[in-house]
Amino acid sequence: MLTGVAMVPIMGALAIAVDYSELSREKQAVLAALDTAGVATARRFVEGATDEQLKVYAKEFFQTNLSHIDPLNTTLEVEIPSATTGGGTLKLTATLVYHPIFLPTSAMMIGRSSHATNVDVRVTSEVRLKNTLEVAMVLDNSGSMDYIGTGSGKKRIVLLKEAAKQLVDTIAGQAAQVKQVNKPVQFSLVPFAASVNIGPDKASKSWMDQDGISPIHHENFNWAAFTASNKLVTKIGGVFYKKGSAWGSEENQKVTRFQLYNDLKRTVTQTWNAQQTCTATYSNGSCKTWAGGYDYTYAPYASWGGCVEARPSPYNANDATPSKGTPATLFVPMFAPDETDLKDSSNRSAESNWWSDLTTSTNNTTRQTYTPKYYTPAPLGTAAATGSNGPNASCTTKPITPLTDIGTAAGVAAIKAAIDDMAAGGATNAPEGLAWGWRTVSGGEPFTEGRPDTEKGNDKAVILLTDGANTYYTPSSLGYNDLAANKSIYSAYGYAGRTPTGYSAPRIFQSVPASISKTDYSNANYTKALNAQFDTVCGNAKASNVLLLTVALDLDSNNSTEKAQIDALESCASESRFRKGADGKPAKLFWNAKGGNLADTFKEIANELSNLRIIG
């Protein structure tokens, strides 16, 4: 009888041990399945799956890996971080309903009612998502950056270089600590002035207009000016070709701006050949009279400097992928036409007069667009056009530096060297600068160093700094004539007086509000139009989840034109995800800086970027 009495607690203890062991085994199995599902779901998150797709995928993956456990005895909760910000934690919580083997004794022994039939166990698994950052520094390199910064004895461009390199060093130090993610932080550099230089090495890229099919490619060139039957330029299937025997080996060659750069020649040697041609002979057939002449050698006059024109609207203000199927999306190299040789009544010359007109026409538009002139070599003694001279007018900046991994010493050195290489010169075109900054961090062409736009766990940011209002100039405001009615000097939007075929307005006035006149060809109205273009680029970039940080440098709020730029920069800026303003609302990522405190401004920007959780 004593043995029987003793067996009761012994069997109870054994029952509890069996249930506890089985409960622990099932709990571990659930946790293992949960961890596996978390890692797999995190991969799908990074690939860009929707929240609903992630929840379905996590559940299926979890249940498939439950081993011997009946999926009906489990439930799964999935907490997904925001899709519009980088990083965060993916949290999976599973509830296991365990049915004890020995009832009701086991249930009572573990503290539940004798009527209980199961035990609920909750387990959680968290997966820290990768936190990567891609930043474009879009920095004003216009001529005014050569002025002394307010509150400092240094030029603005010098202060900017120091502050930008300080920013790179700060973020690079943090990036170097991230070991588990490839290229955790990348920086690009986009210097801008009147235009943006994407780099002359991009001439052969498929997204450049290799065939001359963009609606803006030939707007300044009259190929019908070739009239000789043996030397024509003929359009076939939307592409211009050289046709006729007088072209020699060049016949059937495409006529594009790229080819025109190659065709421009200058004479480098001129050697007299006294016996070049026999013009008369004696009766015995020997030469009686020789006509003398010159033998010439030629060299290139100019090569493409790397600057491109703004695409026609709406493509100037977005990141649409370039495609031959939509020619207006392709990028066109800048080529400043040679303008008229003639002077006006005030003895003023044209702004871009760098080649002989050749034609005898007195019509200045005809003289400007007369294309045969480019195929007659410049005379002996003509120097090669370098820098922003000749057809590269308004191309004053250094090329873009694409996204570069600053988690390495080599990457940091490359970005800082590009910053040091910046130089001040030219007008201000913030819309083009911002558009190209966006294009360097986006995942598609023309620059493909950025992660896919759909990839989660990655932040894309653009820092834009400018020290002046957007500018586009009339020739007269710079002391030149405008006999060809260009209405502006040549720059990234072409001539303000030229409307591309198929469009109703010049590019600078395309897609601007009705409140801006399209017939007011003045510097002030050009600034208004560029400001409107800037607003559009800002809105489009933010709609694509690009974080915009803007800096006004030494702008005077008492000057109405500069005040408009300050307001535009502040409006363009994104809201901080971490800081609050005095009104309790998210702070604007806008800084109104002076030269003397620019370094402090960039420290604040570094703190903002650090808060994007680049360290996992």
Précis, in short:
With 616 residues, the protein is of the alpha/beta class. The chain has helices at 2-47, 51-64, 105-109, 156-175, 257-263, 364-369, 409-420, 430-441, 523-543, 560-572, 598-610; strands at 74-79, 89-98, 119-128, 132-140, 185-192, 196-197, 232-236, 239-243, 265-281, 287-300, 307-308, 401-405, 458-466, 546-553, 575-580, 586-588, 590-593. It contains 11 helices and 17 strands.
Molecular structure report:
With 616 residues, this protein is α/β, with parallel strands linked by helices. It contains eleven helices and 17 strands. It has three domains: 2-128; 132-202 and 387-610, 3-Layer(aba) Sandwich (Rossmann fold), CATH 3.40.50; 223-307 and 337-375, no CATH class. A six-stranded mixed β-sheet has the order 12-5-4-13-14-17, with helices on both faces. A hairpin with a 2-residue loop joins strand 7 (232-236) and strand 8. The radius of gyration is 35 Å and the shape is elongated. The two termini are 65 Å apart.
